[in-house]
Amino acid sequence: MVEFESADAGSPSGSDVNGEKTRAKSGKEKSKKRGHGDDKSAGGLNGTHAERRSSVSKPARDFRDMPEPAPKKKKRKTTTIVPIAAAEVDESSTRSPSPVIDFDGLSRPSRGTRDRLEESVEQKETRMERMKGAVRTLLECVGEEPDREGLLATPERYAKAMLFFTKGYQENVRDIVNGAIFQEGHNEMVIVKDIEIFSMCEHHLVPFTGKMHIGYIPANAVIGISKLPRIAEMFARRLQIQERLTKEVANAIMEVLTPQGVAVVMESSHLCMVMRGVEKTSSSTITSCVLGCFERKEKTRNEFLSLIGVNRR
Q1: What domain count does the chain have?
Q2: What is the residue range of 136's domain?
Q3: Where is each GTP cyclohydrolase I domain found (predicted)?
């Protein structure tokens, strides 16, 4: 007779069998996943379909490797200037928006210069007598005899000469330009060079003389070329220093003509450092003022300096 063993004694329980099945299934799934991962790695090595991450998609780990951002360009503020010839100016106004130009010719207005401009014939005679008396006093103070033959007419001659040296106080830009601005569509450089200049040093009341070179690049409108020396002469016939004289001429042309740019260079000899002081007879002083495109563009500025002969010296 055949005996069968009890299921409870010789065989695993139902829960153990189910657990082993579950563990076997999970093991197969893990091995299957590992197989797929190997396939992907192999595919990447063979260059079939693996996609690499871009090396520049994320910033570098070291902040010092990061490129510096490009600086932002500052916008240049531009101001529109209306030419005197085209502007509707109130007849009662004597000053323009520029601190340099005055319609009555007084770039540095004072009570004395205005009185001289508006004086009557009787006031002019009184002024002349006062100046003659002042010169006579100077002659006496330096030890001279004002009544000797050679000095009898010197006070009057000197008074008239000083009024001529400073006649620029009685002139104005509006009358000098006199509407001589023409729309010619020209935009190339215009230069008037070697303009002779005679002015009076305001520090010692002795002359300084030299030459001035004026250049501008029109914005379609041109000015009569004789007006440039006339403007320079007006500012020179005042008590001046060379630095201010150069700047005043440049600003005056910039305002009345509104060109693309203006350049003024002046070279002169000052008798205040030739006849006295350091007494250097061979020295000269050069000043310049560049506005607009001459200031912004080195190539344009160098072309002007080359044409007037400064770069060749």
Answers
A1: 2
A2: 111-170
A3: 132-308
> Among 249, 248, 263, 268, which residue's Cα sits nearest to residue 199?
268
In a domain, 49, yes or no: no
For 242-293, the pLDDT digits (tens) are 999 999 999 999 989 999 999 999 999 999 999 988 888 888 999 999 999 9
C-alpha to C-alpha distance for 216 and 242, rounded to whole angstroms = 20
* 120 plus 202 within the same structural domain: no
CB of 193 closer than 8 Å to CB of 264: no
CA distances from 287 to 61, 93, 210 (A): 56, 32, 11
Could you tell me which of 281, 246, 238, 277 has the C-alpha nearest to residue 262? Answer: 246
208 found inside a domain: yes
User: Which pair of structure tokens corresponds to residue 99?
Assistant: 């601190």
Contact indicator for 166, 238 with CB cutoff of 8 Å: yes
Give the residue from 128, 151, 170 where a domain finishes: 170
Strand, coil or helix: what is 262?
strand
Stated pTM of the model: 0.67
Residue with tokens 């520049």: 56
